[in-house]
Write a structure and sequence with these properties.
This protein has a domain of 42 residues: Flavocytochrome C3, Chain A, domain 2 (Orthogonal Bundle), CATH 1.10.1130.10. By secondary structure, it is mainly alpha-helical. The chain has three helices and no strands.
Length: 162
């Protein structure tokens, strides 16, 4: 009883037994993984996929009609290089309510000044601060899927909005 732990096994044999069980588990997991179907396609996961080139942005500053109610407005100007961090938001230098008169840009919606309980705030709500989460830049990209949407008035979607 001198060299035994509480389970009654000798400490001398417990380490080799654990190593053996770990090796057996690794072999079992490997066999299961070899028989399982791949979820990511037939190419090996290390393969680097070719990324399609981004579509050219439209920078004519023409505001487009929205395709559906409550659609966030599309950005009709270049935004490359705009800083959008926790401490700086270049969008607000033109679209912030104190700058719209001088810039001629449309002011951000009053809904961007409400907290989640509907209370008005003095500045932009933190949950509306990162503009690019909802607003995208206008491009001349081909639609990824065909669109045969017709609105309630029978009008087809604006071709300028993608």
């Amino acid at each position: 009883m001198r060299h035994q732990d509480s389970s009654g096994l000798s400490k001398r044999w417990s380490l080799p037994a654990l190593v053996g069980l770990a090796a057996l588990a690794a072999v079992a997991v490997g066999a299961i993984a070899a028989e399982s179907p791949r979820l990511t396609g037939s190419s090996p996961f290390e393969a680097v996929a070719k990324v399609p080139q981004l579509a050219e942005p439209v920078t004519d500053d023409v505001r487009r009609m929205r395709s559906y109610p409550e659609q966030p407005p599309i950005i009709p100007h270049a935004i490359e290089g705009y800083q959008l961090t926790l401490t700086a938001n270049r969008c607000l230098t033109c679209h912030g309510r104190q700058y719209v008169e001088g810039s001629g840009a449309p002011m951000i919606s009053v809904t961007h000044f409400m907290d989640r309980h509907g209370q008005m705030l003095a500045d932009v709500s933190p949950r509306r601060y990162f503009c690019l989460l909802c607003h995208v830049q206008q491009t001349e990209a081909r639609p990824l899927v065909d669109n045969n949407f017709v609105d309630m008035l029978g009008a087809e979607p604006n071709d300028g909005v993608r």
